[in-house]
Structure formats: structure tokens, C-alpha cells
Amino acid sequence: MTKPRLFSGMQPSADSLHAGNYIGALLQWKQLQRDYDAVFSVVDLHAITVPQDPATLREKTRRTAAQYIAAGIDPSASTLYVQSQVPAHAQLAWVLNTITGYGEASRMTQFKDKTAKQGLEAASVGLFTYPVLQAADILLYDAEIVPVGEDQRQHIELTRDLAQRFNSRFGETFVVPEVSILKETAKVYDLQNPGSKMSKSGDTENGILWLLDEPNRLVKKIKSAVTDNDGSIRYDPAEKPGVSNLLTLLSVLGGSTIPALEAEFAGRGYGDLKGAVADAVVAEFAPVRERALELLADPAELDRVLTGNAERADAIAEATLRRVYDAVGF
Ligand code: ADP
Ligand code: NA
User: Fold this and answer.
1) Residue 288 and residue 211: Cα distance in Å, rounded?
2) pLDDT tens string 80-129
3) Burial class (CB in 10 A: 0-12, 13-18, 19+), 60
4) Per-residue pLDDT band at 235 (split at 50, 70, 90)
5) In whole angstroms, what is the distance from residue 6 CA to residue 42 CA?
6) Site to substitute for ligand 1 among 21, 23, 49, most atoms within 8 A of C-beta
7) Which residues are within 8 A (CB) of 29 and not within 5 positions of it... i.e. 6 or more apart?
8) Distance of alpha carbon 83 from its chain centroid, rounded?
9) Which member of 30, 187, 200, 223 is catalytic?
10) For residue 32, pLDDT beyond 80
11) Is 129 close to ligand 1, i.e. is its CB under 6 Å away?
């Protein structure tokens, strides 16, 4: 029996992924790759929609791929590749651009959010059509399932609309994917600013737990996490965002439920909680970091793995692009 196809990806937008990416994406992917024919991409074409430095991009792309593998994405069971190594992404995105309404694209809230600060004059057309490239990513692999966070729902809906529109205009060509929101996925917040989510673009360097941080750096950041003056260890994201965030981290990484942790830490101080969180984070991240650094220390071997995976991805994507080109009259 063939497994259903799954597609997901992350931008290579930092040297290291962070605890939010790890918990919200990599841990899920690692589970899902058993039950699905999974395709995981480092989406570097998306990363050039904003100003970028080429040498840095190349480095971030390799580091992101290494962290996927180090975190447990198996490049012989899943297809793990760099998007720019598969030309069909850009080719299909062009075709999809021609069936996307300008008004439809203008309604994408993520573009509005991303351009809110600097204004439209500073934005590239590439950033505007980013969701169309994302649709191409998904449709090229006949993905049935696209596990994403709630913030990506609108883009997946657009992908479905474009697939259905193309199919009805040009004949059955695309698999229409399901929106599969990772509901139960815990959200991780900035340790210094627990009202906002931990993000690569976050501005409090000490609030972000990087997967590639040295263990003692992780411990320092966790020990200096912002809490409150209430003194009790309870999960209450509205009133106690800092403590609740620490409980989330400990629950996800340590495998205990939040109520069990509340019981365990009843009457104890924040220092104890932080110590336990630090132990759990270091136990989880240190081996991933070591493995990632090993992979990065052998560039030829990492390239060999990525090239082999890109060839597998390319074979699937080319076949879909062929159907599309035939359908539109090329
Ligand atoms: P960032 O906001 O740091 O740029 P991305 O938007 O690239 O992160 O997110 C990549 C993946 O990581 C997505 O699947 C997203 O749901 C997950 N993710 C990012 N930040 C968090 C977070 N703070 N908590 C949980 N999951 C997160
Ligand atoms: Na983001």
C-alpha cells in the first residue's frame, strides 16, 4: 500500500532553527514521516523575496538542511531537499501566477502583515506572489496533506482554489490538498517577552532558544526567563505567560502533562521549574546540535545526501510539470 504524500517546508531564514520551529514543526514532521510519504523542503526561493545576502543564504540553507536531519528527518525514508535545486517550483509558480486573481492575491493577510511596517514601495513582487509559489511547492508533489500552523491556513485555501480552478479550466491535473492544521501543537513564546511568539525575527536575542546554542547558553537564557511576582507555578497564559511558557516547554520535551507538572511543582519556586526546563531543553537539543555540527563538518557528504534527495524530488516535480505544460498548450 502506498502512503499518502505529505509536503512541508521552512525558510532558511536564520543560522539556527529555534525551539518554536523544533516543537511546532520538526517534532511533528519526525512523527508524520512514518505514516506518510513525506517531502520536506528548505524553501530558499521563498527566502529571496526579502533583501538577503547570498553567502549568508547559502550558509543558512545548508544549516537548515543539517538541522532537519539532525532532528530526525530521515533523508532515506523522506525526501529532504533544497527548493532551488528543483527547477519545476519556479516554472509551475509562473503558470499558477497566470490563473491567480490580482484581487485574490491582494487579500492574503500575511503579505499585509509583512508589509505593514515598511510599506508597499519597499516590498517586492516576489513577496506579493509568495503564496502562489507556496501553492506550486505543494501541488508539484501531489501532496494530500500539508501540515501547517494556523497562520498558513489562508495560503493552503488559496492552493486548493488554484488547484480546483486549474483542473476545471484545463482538465484534471492536480491533487487538491487537505488543509491539516497542527491544532494540538504547542506554541512557544519569547522567554524575555512571553507575550509574543518565539520567532527567528524576534528582537530579544536572549529570549530565543536556538537549536544550535551551546548547552550553557541555553541554561543561561532559561534561568533569566521573565516570570512574574505571583510565585505559584500554574498554567495561565493570560495572567502568567512566562511561567506558562516554561510549563509548555517542559511538558512537550519532558513528556509530562501540564496538570501533572502543576502538581509536581506545587509549593516550589520558579528556580526549580527553570532548572527542570533547562535540563529538558539541554537533553533534547544537545544531541541535535552535535549531530548538526557533525553533518556541517563534512560538506561533501551533506551535498551528496541533498543532491540525491533533490534528484528524487525533481523526478516527481518534473512529471507534474509535464502534465501542466501539456494541459496549458506548451
Ligand atoms: P519564524 O516565525 O521564526 O520565522 P517560521 O514562520 O519560519 O518561523 O515557522 C516555521 C515553522 O515553525 C512553522 O511550521 C511554524 O508553525 C513553526 N513555528 C514557528 N515559530 C513557532 C513558535 N513560536 N511556536 C511553535 N511553532 C512555531
Ligand atoms: Na514566520
Assistant:
1) 7
2) 999 999 999 999 999 999 999 999 999 999 999 999 988 999 999 999 99
3) buried
4) very high
5) 15
6) 21
7) 8, 38, 40, 68, 73, 78, 147
8) 14
9) 200
10) yes
11) no
Fold annotation for 5-186+298-328: Rossmann fold (3.40.50)
The residue nearest atom 21 of ligand 1, judged by CA position, is 20
Which ligand has an atom closest to residue 10 CA? 1
Task: Tell how far the Cα of 115 is from the centroid of ligand 1, in angstroms.
Answer: 19
**Structural domain boundaries of the chain?**
5-186+298-328, 205-293
> What does the block give as the cell for 305?
545526501
Residue 200 annotated among the catalytic residues of the structure: yes
Asked if the model's pLDDT at residue 210 lies above 70, the reply is yes
If you measure from the C-alpha of residue 14 to the centroid of ligand 2, how many angstroms do you get, rounded to a whole number? 11
Task: Kindly report the protein residue whose alpha carbon is nearest to atom 27 of ligand 1.
Answer: 20
Report which ligand 1 atom has the smallest distance to the Cα of 197: 23
**Which CATH number does 205-293 carry?**
1.10.240.10
SS3 (DSSP) at 148: strand
Instruction: Please confirm, yes or no, whether 197 is among the known catalytic residues.
Output: yes
Question: What is the average pLDDT value for the chain, to the nearest integer?
Answer: 96
**Confidence class for position 186, pLDDT limits 50, 70, 90:** confident
What pLDDT, in 10s, does the model give residues 48-82?
Answer: 999 999 999 999 999 999 999 999 999 999 999 99
Nearest CA, atom 11, ligand 1: 21
Residue with cell 496549458: 328
Q: In 3D, which of 134, 132, 113 has the Cα closest to residue 123?
A: 113
Please answer whether residues 180 and 145 qualify as being in contact, where contact means their C-beta atoms are separated by less than 8 angstroms. yes
| Gap from CA of 229 to ligand 2 centroid (Å) | 31
| CA within 13 Å, CB half, 261 | 27
- Is the CB–ligand 1 distance for residue 149 below 6 Å? yes
